[in-house]
């Protein structure tokens, strides 16, 4: 794998903000067939803005097709006081390498689905917050034997770019990602073989702007902890944004991790976390489903805010 200054980079997860945990959990479980891997509750905002620029109670739920050690997964952050987030044009979709059974599950779930014209092996669905998922059997996303370690079933994250040249220069030349393909409309990059890809699409128009609005996400990677200062220093030397300089993040009862948060030229947020501690933090919790279900059952925020004019829109 091409790596930053010789250090292994591992694609971990993409972060979504969600407004309705109940419908969101139903979508990931019943439509996508994922399972919850861990669930964590916090009483105050994250020092690295994992939950966005919000203070107060929030939760984090990791969901995916298998353990975080081997799978690219999704992180769902929920702020108790916010019901909806304004969407921009920054996020274009998640591609899932699917089997026929996956397509059938989505089609039979009762959830709205779209089959693109002329396609027999693709189903498109949207999460309750409007995040687009493309379930595809197309060979370029195929993982072959789905039990094979190191091959991600979440095959690609699709993001917008205002300038593909600047995007490629940043991700390939600064961060050390491998450029898999490039044309006038799209660039595909990957930190290492078998890992989730990043597909950047050129926005149309003469001077397009990536609008991240309030619903913007974040993509996370790990590397050896001793590589984090160098990644931060290289970003600073290149005149690129460091949103959160190196700091330690605590999770109650779990491992403390070190992170650096960067932004690419379009403002897409990138988290680098020390791999050794993250592997401890990200172990599957057999109680994840029940912890989430208990949190949802005990969540009276909708009723509380209903008496005060309803939850805020971000």
TrEMBL record:
Q: Which residues form a coiled coil?
A: none
Q: Does the keyword Repeat apply?
A: yes
Q: Which UniProt keywords apply?
A: Repeat
CDD domains, from UniProt?
Answer: GLOD4_C
Q: Which PROSITE patterns match?
A: VOC
The residues that cross the membrane are none
Q: Which family does it belong to?
A: Belongs to the glyoxalase I family.
Task: Indicate what this protein is called per its UniProt record.
Answer: VOC domain-containing protein
Q: Which organism is it from?
A: Macrostomum lignano
């Amino acid at each position: 794998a091409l790596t930053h200054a010789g250090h292994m980079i591992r694609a971990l997860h993409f972060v979504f903000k969600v407004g309705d945990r109940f419908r969101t959990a139903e979508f990931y479980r019943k439509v996508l067939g994922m399972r919850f891997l861990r669930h964590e509750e916090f009483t105050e905002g994250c020092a690295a803005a994992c939950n966005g620029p919000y203070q107060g109670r929030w939760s984090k739920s990791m969901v995916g097709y298998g353990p975080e050690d081997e799978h690219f997964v999704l992180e769902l952050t929920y702020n108790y006081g916010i019901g909806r987030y304004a969407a921009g044009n920054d996020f274009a979709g998640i591609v899932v390498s699917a089997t026929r059974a996956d397509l059938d599950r989505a089609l039979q779930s009762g959830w709205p689905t779209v089959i693109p014209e002329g396609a027999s092996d693709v189903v498109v669905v949207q999460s309750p917050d409007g995040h687009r998922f493309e379930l595809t059997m197309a060979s370029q996303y195929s993982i072959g034997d789905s039990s094979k370690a190191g091959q991600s079933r979440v095959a690609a994250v699709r993001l917008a770019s205002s300038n593909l040249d600047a995007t490629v220069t940043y991700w390939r030349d600064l961060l050390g990602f491998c450029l898999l393909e490039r044309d006038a409309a799209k660039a595909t990059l990957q930190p290492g073989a078998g890992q989730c890809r990043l597909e950047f699409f050129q926005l149309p128009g003469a001077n397009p702007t990536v609008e991240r609005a309030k619903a913007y996400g974040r993509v996370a990677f790990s590397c050896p902890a001793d590589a984090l200062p160098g990644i931060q220093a290289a970003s600073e030397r290149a005149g690129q944004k460091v949103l959160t300089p190196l700091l330690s993040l605590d999770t109650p009862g779990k491992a403390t991790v070190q992170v650096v948060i960067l932004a690419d030229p379009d403002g897409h947020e990138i988290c680098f976390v020390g791999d050794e501690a993250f592997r401890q933090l990200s172990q599957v919790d057999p109680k994840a489903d029940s912890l989430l279900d208990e949190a949802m059952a005990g969540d009276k925020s909708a009723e509380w805010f209903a008496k005060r004019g309803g939850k805020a829109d971000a």
